Amino acid sequence: GGFAGMMDVSFIKNYQQPLLATSTDGVGTKVAIAQAIDKHDTIGQDLVGMVVDDIVVVGAKSLFMTDYIACGKVVPTRIADIVRGIAEACSQVGVALVGGETAEHPGLLEPDDYDVAGAAVGVVEASKLLGPQNVKPGDVVLGIEASGLHSNGYSLVRKVVADKGFKYTDHSDDFGMNLGEALLTPTRLYTGVLNDLLESDLGAGVHAMSHITGGGIAANLSRILPDYVTLDVERSTWRPQDMFQVLAGWGGYDLKSLESTWNLGLGFAVVVRGSAAEAISAQLNAAGVKTWQLGIIESTACDLDAMGYTYEAKGVRGGGVRLVGDYAK
After folding, report:
1. Torsions phi, psi of 48, nearest 5?
2. Measured distance CA(87)–CA(142) in Å, rounded
């Protein structure tokens, strides 16, 4: 009932140089599918994942989160479903949900319309900060499997479905369930297992991380690499899940043409010291997240434009990244 959420952070006094990390995000047009089938208990996990999994990228541990729900009309059961999903996801990754806001906007939003957003704050010791400054030639890049589309590229998903004339309430033989429910598969939460990794004996072998979200695979990898290295991502090291194969087929797209829109089954990437790659991969696999080697960091020794590398993201020059070969069948 207070105006502000609070958290005791006196433990930060034990840090030598604590850096606060913050992130804010939403889940995009994925909410339109939740509204279409009146199912709202997964959107909360999507929101938490999109926020806290950006914070762990710098090596930080998320401390607390707040949420914001804007709607045309407050429907208590719907709001309860959304907030319960947020709270349960926060609990899974050890993040405190310290507050939130629900705003009713009649006349601006239709009665059944809503949107969600959230923000979180974390902390990292300055000496343990992850990022391009740590990456060196010879480092290995590990990929971590996505649970599906996560929360990006849904404008294209909705166009594909509309062009096919399907309804989200239709049963899909391709997915063995209601189409809308398949498309609402929640975003995988990586923060818990990655923070465990960073706090383990293997944590020192982690140099950088990337959350594969909007902008796609190459751009999100480029932004965590220094501008003097390149990375060839071997497509043959994984098979995009059926979700991507089916949607691409419905839309008449080649999977390679979708690499800047969908994660294609690659939800996260971790750049690690070469000698630690096998052990780190084994620990992540044992924690229940499928992990594999994507490629090896090399020194830049070519014309990046001529060789088809992506080397700029969010207006910042990074390392050169390209995807090579064909996806596993």
Report:
1. -60, -45
2. 30
β-pairing verdict for 114-125 and 96-104: unpaired
Q: Is the pTM of this model over 0.85?
A: yes
Q: State the DSSP H helix or E strand holding residue 64, giving kind and residue range, or none if neither.
A: strand 61-71
CA–CA separation, 300 and 257 (whole Å): 25
Element (H, E) at 199: helix 191-199
Residue 120 · residue 90 · CB < 8 Å: no
Please list the pLDDT of the chain residue by residue as tens digits (329 residues): 789 999 999 999 999 999 999 999 999 999 999 999 999 999 999 999 999 999 999 999 999 999 999 999 999 999 999 999 999 999 999 999 999 999 999 999 999 999 999 999 999 999 999 999 999 999 999 999 999 999 999 999 999 999 999 999 999 999 999 999 999 999 999 999 999 999 999 999 999 999 999 889 999 999 999 999 999 999 999 999 999 999 999 999 999 999 999 999 999 999 999 999 999 999 999 999 999 999 999 998 788 998 999 998 888 899 999 999 999 98
